[in-house]
Amino acid sequence: MASRPSSLFLIVRQLFTALALVAAAISQSGCSSVFFYPDKVTYVTPDRLNLDYQDIYLDTADGETLHGWWLPAETNGSTPKGTIYYLHGNAQNISSHIFNVAWLPPEGYNVFTIDYRGYGESTGSPDLEGSLHDVEVGMRWLAGYAPAQTGPVFLLGQSLGGGLGIALASEWQTRGEQPPLSGAIFDSTFSGFRAIAREKLGSFWLTWPFQIPLSWTIPDDYEGVDRIGDISPVPVMIIHSVRDGIIPFHDGLALYEAAKQPKQFLRTDTPHASTFVIPAYRQALLKFLEKTGG
Asked: Who's near 55: CB < 8 A, 6+ residues apart?
């Protein structure tokens, strides 16, 4: 008569089954779940923050429609100081991230921001290659939009938006696209897509055994530390907090070390991507914008 499997054997078998299922699920999504946490909720619109705005809808080459907001500078009839293309982080959508840049129009800067595919009112499902395409679609729209052509253009990316922004800015500069960026700011940004995926997978016991093979499903063509040097001679500002519990401080330092001059590092002390709740950090950004914008 065959003996029944021991309880320990059953537990081990169930554990390996769970691990295999987790690995399969992440592999099929190309590790997208590590980067993208979109939702369709409208948290706040710019008018609730006493800001003028215009809804912008852009079509992508692969059939998606992206939604964005154009926030004109408050200038009292004078010329705007410049335009900031803002790329938000990986959770929610522009209606929650708008608080990070709502203070800039009163300072005299236009702001343009979009939701990547799958976020907010944008159609489709998020993935790395698609999002990289989306941010370039937004930049090309901005390059042809007359109100943005009255002054310098800056790129501001936070967290995931910084990773996407480094790839975009390096390509924009390398290809000699117009208008040229006057400055690029990367706040709370990881050193590379593959590197941070491996780190995050390694921090969870179910995915720890698969951190290396699963991270290989992510293209290594867009690692920030490999691309950020190509942005030179456009001035770069790296912002990172020693209290960042999502993206380690050493990622910001690695990006700064890889960047070429002119470059600046702002060491902060806030939670992840909460830089601009502090007036002193707002002033540091404004000083960078004024210096690099001519």
From this structure: 67, 68, 69
Evaluate whether 130 touches 64 at the Cβ level (below 8 Å). Answer: yes
- The residue among 2 and 199 whose pLDDT is bigger is 199
Task: State the pLDDT at residue 22.
Answer: 42
The CATH architecture to which 9-292 belongs is: 3-Layer(aba) Sandwich (3.40)
- Pair of tokens at residue 117: 């595919």
Q: Provide the greatest CA pair distance for the chain.
A: 92
Residues 104-125: pLDDT tens digits?
A: 999 999 999 999 999 999 999 9
Residues near 188 by Cβ (< 8 Å), separated by ≥ 6?
89, 158, 159, 162, 239, 240, 241, 244, 246, 247, 252, 272, 273, 275
Which pTM does this prediction carry? 0.86
In the chain, where the domains are located: 9-292
* Tokens read off for 74: 């408050």
